[in-house]
Recover the amino acids of this structure.
């Protein structure tokens, strides 16, 4: 059986957009509201989600806006 090598760092980095969408749904918030919190348009937020283009400052704002617990922040930050 062949070994499968997964680049864990790249995989986790590509999963940030999905993580944001998951937490938006869990918090019952809308993308337009998060976009306003980030001071960007909703299409710009969609682009950031699709291309995993969040800055550190964006992530801090998202954590605060969605009331993400510290354990989850550590999980997401472990790349």
């Amino acid at each position: 059986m062949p070994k499968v090598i997964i680049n864990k760092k790249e995989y986790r980095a590509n999963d940030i957009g999905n993580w944001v969408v998951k937490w938006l749904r869990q918090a019952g918030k809308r993308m337009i509201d998060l976009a306003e919190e980030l001071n960007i348009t909703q299409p710009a937020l969609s682009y950031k989600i699709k291309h995993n283009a969040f800055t550190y400052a964006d992530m801090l704002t998202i954590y605060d806006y969605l009331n993400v617990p510290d354990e989850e922040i550590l999980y997401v930050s472990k790349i």
